[in-house]
Specification:
Layout (H helix, E strand, L loop, with lengths): L8 H8 L11 H7 L8 E7 L5 E7 L1 H10 L3 E4 L4 E4 L8 E8 L6 E7 L14 E3 L4 E3 L7 H4 L4
Parallel strand pairs: 1-6
Antiparallel strand pairs: 1-2, 3-4, 5-6, 7-8
Main location: cytoplasm
EC number: 3.5.4.19
Family: In the C-terminal section; belongs to the PRA-PH family. In the N-terminal section; belongs to the PRA-CH family.
């Protein structure tokens, strides 16, 4: 039994601030109970290519998507527009294989280290972060790797 097991979920992440790598943490379900999903039951998840560090995308997960991702090691998000689970690559084939997952210090944001197959962005680009901003102008920083019409089978 961990010293964290007796804490109310709302106190867990505060207590983890002073934890060390040698501490026994609570069971995964207790930790997920303490995750600070927003009022819609969602958690922002940032996907980063595990070997290059490239930030690929940000999407949302509900608890079910997070649990499925941890269980299957294939990344699953929650689609706000479709109001259902969205298994990355189910229509495009551009899947994300989970390498690791980490919560931030507040338990309200998730970082996913993934192995991305092809482009991560629905525009056909490797990353969704292709519009560069400065104080004077914006610029497109990459070309699509695949035409989105081809990627999603549209004519």
């Amino acid at each position: 039994m961990s010293r964290f097991d007796q804490l109310p979920p709302g106190d867990l992440f505060k207590a983890l601030e002073v934890a060390s790598p040698s501490d026994d943490l609570p069971q995964i379900n207790a930790l997920l109970d303490a995750v600070r999903f927003n009022e819609g039951g969602l958690l922002p998840a940032i996907a980063q290519q595990f070997d290059s560090g490239e930030v690929l995308m940000m999407a949302w997960m509900n608890r079910e998507a997070l649990e499925e991702t941890l269980t299957t090691q294939r990344v699953c998000y929650y689609s706000r527009s479709r109001q259902k689970l969205w298994r990355k690559g189910e229509t495009s084939g551009q899947q994300q294989q989970l390498k690791s997952a980490a919560l931030d210090c507040d338990g309200d944001t998730l970082l996913l280290q993934v192995d991305q197959t092809g482009p991560a962005c629905h525009t056909g680009r490797r990353s969704c972060f292709y519009v560069s901003l400065s104080n004077e102008h914006a610029a497109i920083t990459s070309e699509p790797l695949i035409d989105p019409a081809t990627l999603y089978g549209k004519k």
